[in-house]
Amino acid sequence: MTIRPAFAPSCGAPLPWDLLPQGKFTGYYRNCRECLRRLESYGAFIGLRFQVEDVLLKVALPMPTLSVVVPVHNGSRTIERCLRALVSSPDFETIVVNDGSTDNTSALIDRFPVRKLENLTAAGPARARNLGASVASGDILVFIDADVEVHADTLIRIAQVFADRPELHAIIGSYDDAPEERSTISLFKNLLHHYVHQHAWQRATTFWGGCGAVRRETFLQLGGMNELFPRPSVEDIEFGYRLYQSGLLCEMRREIQAKHLKKWTFRGLIETDLICRAIPWTELMFEMRMFPADLNFTHGHRISSFLVFAILGTLSLSLFLKSALAIGLLLMLGFVALNQDFYRFLAKRGGSKFLYTAVPFHFLYCGYSALGFGCGIASFWLRSISGRRRLFYSSLQQKIPTP
Q1: In the chain, where are the structural domains located?
Q2: Mean pLDDT of all residues in 208-231
Q3: Where are the beta strands (DSSP E) in 185-267?
Q4: Which has the closest alpha carbon to 111: 146, 149, 84?
Q5: Of 53, 65, 90, 99, which sees the most CB atoms within 10 A?
Q6: In Å, what is the CA distance from 289 to each residue of 115, 234, 283, 284?
Q7: Do 110 and 125 form a contact (C-beta atoms < 8 A)?
Q8: Entry pTM
Q9: H or E stretch covering 91
């Protein structure tokens, strides 16, 4: 915490009143209570926010302006709830980029007081977000997916964080722990995402486009999101890696949450987690030499994935060697013990009946995550020896598109 002396005229020392609105004296000011009262009165006059903490006065600039960018492709099932929640906060600009939708998404967007941009053909969320950023007027770009419903305080919290933390360049939040869809697959997947983000490092090494925010100047400076990704994939993660490697601070803010409206299917789960995330994410990690033990790559998750294949191997071996069955059962107990905190969370949010069906899904999730990691390594190696590396970031010299 930075503490600077500040004196009102009655203290016999000058206070730089004229510099306060420009933010050159933001921070904590130590002073007497008479001076605090004078500062509070002046702050109300010039529109600054003050918070008295004993004999400390926290001075902050006015709240930054936000531009919310929503990319959508065939999102007719959820876009109305997404936009209804956003426009309930009229102080913020909302930009919706219709990315080549073939359903009635465009007509639904027209029902709301938002700015609509159109991609005639689907180009992917990276290009859609870049297009929205190119016309945004806010200090902060807030990216919200079309199947996400913000809470009443989500945008206010985002603005508050950036107002209080001028050194922050980006923040990410998480889904809440009360998903809209209550099927076993949807409930498991959304609660897993919530749990992973809530237990992530505060200093984020990545970014998340589902509910994340970044200073507009920073976003443009880094060239926006990489449009080499023509479909939802790891374009937000790649942007976060560039943020981190540029030394720009991005934080996980656990209090910033939103509701996920997506209805997951088994096929969609495998396709998204394995094809669109695990394999390209692994390639990205090896190309950018980023291997943080965070989010889906914690040491616990790595061990769990190893145990899945160890269990399957010993159970297969038990067909020929009976003693292997006992080893397999011990490994299964180890798997459950390692993830007991997560399972307690699932039981608390979904009930014991849900837990009994969620554990096999978690076992499957760890298994195909490890499979995706292996496939990603193989893909990266094959691309490297053939000279066809993806060059996710090193050749990024794109310009933000203009509408």
Answers
A1: 3-60, 66-284, 295-385
A2: 94
A3: 211-215, 250-260
A4: 84
A5: 99
A6: 39, 15, 10, 8
A7: no
A8: 0.82
A9: none
The two structure tokens encoding residue 292: 């943080």
Q: Are 78 and 107 in contact (CB under 8 A)?
A: no
Rounded to whole angstroms, how far apart are CA atoms 31 and 177?
43
How would DSSP label each residue in 173-195? EEE-SS-S--SHHHHHHHHHHHH
pLDDT of residue 326: 93
pLDDT of residue 91: 79
Instruction: Express each pLDDT in 335-388 by its tens digit.
Output: 999 999 999 999 999 999 999 999 999 999 999 999 999 999 998 888 888 766
Instruction: Assign a CATH topology to domain 66-284.
Output: Spore Coat Polysaccharide Biosynthesis Protein SpsA; Chain A (3.90.550)
How far is residue 149 from each of residues 95, 104, 193, 211, 261, measured CA to CA in Å? 15, 19, 15, 10, 7
Alpha-carbon distance 351 to 177, whole Å?
13
Q: Quote the tokens at residue 378.
A: 């193989």
CA-closest candidate to residue 39, choices 242, 359, 29: 29
Q: By three-state DSSP, how is residue 214 classified?
A: strand
Tens digits of residue pLDDT in 71-98:
999 999 999 999 999 998 767 999 999 9
